[in-house]
Every structure is written in C-alpha cells, then in structure tokens.
Amino acid sequence: MELAGIVGKPNVGKSTLFSALTLVNVEIASYPFTTRKPNVGVTYLRVDCVCRELGLRDNPRNSLCVDGVRLVPIQVIDCPGIVPGAHMGRGLGLQFLDDIRQASCLIVVVDASGSTADDGTLSEPGSHDPRRDVELVENEVTMWMAGLLWSEWPRISRAAEARQASLRSEIARKLSGLGVGLEDVDEALNRVRLDERRPTSWRREDVEGLAGELRRLNKPMIVAANKIDIEGSDRYVRSLRDAGYDVIPCSAEAERVLRLAAEKGLIRYVPGDPDFTAYEEKLSQAQKNALEKIRERVLRPWKGTGVQQIIDKAYMEKLGYVPVFPVEDPHRYSDRSGNILPDVYLVKKGSTPRQLAEKIHTELAEGYLYAVDARTGMRLGEDYRLKSHDIISIVSAKRRA
Description:
CATH architecture of the largest domain: 3-Layer(aba) Sandwich
Shape: flat
CATH topology of the largest domain: Rossmann fold
CATH superfamily of the largest domain: P-loop containing nucleotide triphosphate hydrolases
Largest sheet: 7 strands, mixed
Distance between the termini: 21 Å
Helix content: 25-40%
Number of domains: 3
Strand content: 15-25%
Mean pLDDT: 90
Low-confidence stretches: 25-37
Number of helices: 14
C-alpha cells in the first residue's frame, strides 16, 4: 500500500504531528534535526461505518468501530527535516531525500504562525512567511529528481535520438525507484511540450521543468498549516490558500493532548471530532484549564484540530483509496464465524472485486468465481469497479470471504 510522508523543515512540528497521529513517543525538541532517521508508525483513517446504515451491531477484526466511526489502521512516515541545499547534501540532505522514496504523498508541515526561521530556529511570530517553506520542499525534491535524470541525460538522450531506446521508457526506468511510472512520464511530457525528437538539445532547465511536473504528479502534496493556536496564524493560512496550495489548518500539539487524554479515560474524543466530552470528576483543575484552552483556541474557531482531516485527505483523496467491507454471508453481513462486518479493506479507486480478493487472500483470488453486492444481492461483473463503502461477498472455489 502507498504511504504518506510527513516532511518539512526542522522545528515546525513534524514530530509532534507524527506523535499525535500515532501516539508513538518520538523525540520532540525545539532544535533542528531532532528526527535523524524516518519514523514509521501506525495511525488510523476515519471512515463512516455501514453498521449505522444497516442498523447492525458490528464485530470488527481488522479495525475499530466507535459509535459508527470505523478507524482503519494505516502506516505513515515521519522524515528528517529538510533545509535549503538538501539536494546538494546540506543538512541531512540526501538522507532525507532518499527517505521520501517511500512516500507517495507528501504532508508538508509548515509553521502557520510564522515563528520558525529558514534554518529551523525559533523566531518571533509573524517574522517568517510559511509559503517559503512549501517552496523549499517543492524545490529540493524537484532539483533532486532533476539531478538523478541529468546525471544520465547524455546516455538517455543519445539512445533516444538513435532510436535505440524509448525516451519515455528510459526516464521512467531511471526514476522507478521513486515510484515514477510510464503514465507519469507520459503526462509530464505532454505538459512541458519539449521536443522529444531532439532530447540532446534539452538544457538543464528543461529537465528541471520536467522533474517539477513529475513531482506534482508522483508526489502530490497537502500543506499542514500547524500551530493555528498562535494568534495571527489565520493570516498565513489565507496566504497559503491564495497561493494555490491544498491547505489544512491544524494544531498537532492540541491533537496529541486530546488523544492522550482520551487514551487515559479523562475525556471522550474520537479523532476528527470537532469537540470532546470531559469526565470532570477525573480531571484536576490544571487539566481542565489546559483542555478548555484547546477548546477556545483551536476547536471552536477552527472546528477541530485538523490532524485527522490531514491523514484522511492524504489517503482517500490524494492517493485515491476507498473503504470496502468484504463479508462471507451476504444476507447476515458476516464472516464464517458470525462476526458482523468484520473487516474493512482500503483499495484503490477503480479496483475490481477480483483485485479485492487478491488483497484479502491468495487462495481466495486463485479460486475466484464471482462477487455479490450484499446490499442488493446482485452478482457483479468482471468489469465492476468497487465504490466507497461497498459491501462485497466474494464467491471462490477455494474459500469465501
């Protein structure tokens, strides 16, 4: 499954966001390069469960269901901080860039309060424009990809002009380690409109332009505008949106506090909720004051912390996954043990029931006969494309699920 990677310059709250999402105790400190190697953790997508629609009480196995909200586990990566010149080896440079090979979507964390300087040191709120931080990530990843191509451009371009190799195939082969495919290359070349008959005449700037298009296609971005609890951050959230970025305002620290409080049974809070319910008798006055501050500075003005929305958007919109509920018994919506709506699988948009069977179990796919829409009882054709929240029963000669 494709993964989302949390990226950005040092000290903007990347590790705090990762910790809030996963409740993993990563090192968090106010100095550059706290994260020196990528952290990989498990977090959850928030999905409306079909149990409410069906009026059933479910028995989840591979996920959690909280009052009709399914929390589906997925992995996310926290990469080391990036600084200007990373593609030339500055800072953690090439290590950072190599780490993001694993990421198919980039969650770019910026300090929406404008209080983190270019080098990651803290400064006065409003003293730094976070749009520069997004441009930093865009430029470093683009220049890195361009460098990979340019290093072999003489060979690639000469082979293409001599018709010894396909230009598009050679570009895709060179960048295959980043997950770049031939479709990405086709689309990028169609956008830049360079003369493919004479690639030996391309300049370094031409290759950089191509790399920029490949980055946009292959590493779609979400901007996590962090630290919205600091006064004045709304101005920079607006400016980021005006610049055309896909922005979600967030407070990673507020989300981390709420999830920890919920885990300890001090409040009722489901990630993504716009508010929480406090169990007053369990809280000290200091805890009540801290929670109320989160409510006043984050939840009420922003309708939530934004953290859950970031991860949901990354996987379900940018990466194009949809939740599907496979069952064995289409009448009872259960598996062979009687568990109601036991599992949720995330599949790419456009997937078929046969591909779902492959994802569930090899034997199920090997004996695949057909699939049934459990809601309607109708048999589905080979060309049926799975939709979000489908309930599917797979009939197999070897096994049913």
